[in-house]
Known about the structure:
Pfam families: Usp. The protein is an alpha/beta fold and 148 residues long. It has one domain (2-135): Rossmann fold (3-Layer(aba) Sandwich), CATH 3.40.50. Helices cover 40% and strands 26% of the residues. It contains five helices and five strands, in the order E-H-E-H-E-H-E-H-H-E. A five-stranded parallel beta sheet has the order 3-2-1-4-5, sandwiched between helices.
Amino acid sequence: MYRTIICGIGMGSRETAIRLLRRAAALLDHGGSIVVLHVVENIPHRHLMDLPEEFETTAMADAERKLVSLCRELGVPATVEVRIGVAASMLVSAAKERSADLILLSSHVPDITDYVFSSIVEKVLRHAGCSVLIDRRPDQLQEDGALL
Length: 148
């Protein structure tokens, strides 16, 4: 069992998010805490010409609203944090800041970018100062494919 769990959730599959939140709740010590962390990837400003100025702010607010709602729906007592940056670095930093003893993540089907740049999971595994649990169960494709 764990005192502080960082649960990294993207805006992908709702089924994966539910599975991760339930697993985090099951692994939590009595009186422990879960931090649900979503990272809006930092996009270099030279690439923002086609995106509205409020893109990051809107993405952050949307992610927070959806994750708070999902935690409430599942009855999982968690603090939701949304950050802007590089996902792997933000997850490792959050774990260090909170003295977490577990980072909980899900994997995905690797694509060519994972082999060229390495995956978020791989980077977290390499740099985390605590245990990392990877949920490897692939989700079946859903009609909408989105988290919420």
